[in-house]
Amino acid sequence: ETGVTQTPRHLVMGMTNKKSLKCEQHLGHNAMYWYKQSAKKPLELMFVYNFKEQTENNSVPSRFSPECPNSSHLFLHLHTLQPEDSALYLCASSQDQARGYEQYFGPGTRLTVT
Amino acid sequence: GDSVTQMEGPVTLSEEAFLTINCTYTATGYPSLFWYVQYPGEGLQLLLKATKADDKGSNKGFEATYRKETTSFHLEKGSVQVSDSAVYFCALGDMRFGAGTRLTVKP
Fold first, then answer.
1. Low-confidence ranges of chain B (pLDDT < 50)
2. How many angstroms separate the CA atoms of A67 and A46, rounded?
């Protein structure tokens, strides 16, 4: 596979469930990102990892927990979510976090919280 | 802080019409500027970029020029096609994105 892949593509979960989103990049990049995209708000940056270290947490609630075991993989662990967390979650990667590098996005996971 | 403001949509055009989507930014220093496009059911993909003042990015008939004096990076295309229907995002190099502009092109 090439590029940035995300699984699952669709997820429906109850508010008491625990689930994880997975992102994998095959581009040899060192920075990875989680974004939330919803109809009501512009694209929101959630977390950034650069060389496996978390460098940004954009005031994200603790019910979202990221994990970056290596430069190629990024997870978003979800627990006790709220209906307003329903959105498209996009993963992206770039050469590194420095300005000037374009980001490559995965297709997203469409999350519905019931 | 740094921010991006882009023209709100939706924008509806007929095929072969001229397209302009406005984008202005506020930033310290001179960030790289990007336009991304998101087709239905997909993630964003880079359309074009410019890394310094007066640079012109271009791709697939789209163009945008980095204007430092007006802090703008407007997207233009001379003749749009139905296949250009998508959502377009202006972005700064520090991961700040505009709200997105939905373009619909009708045959």
1. none
2. 13
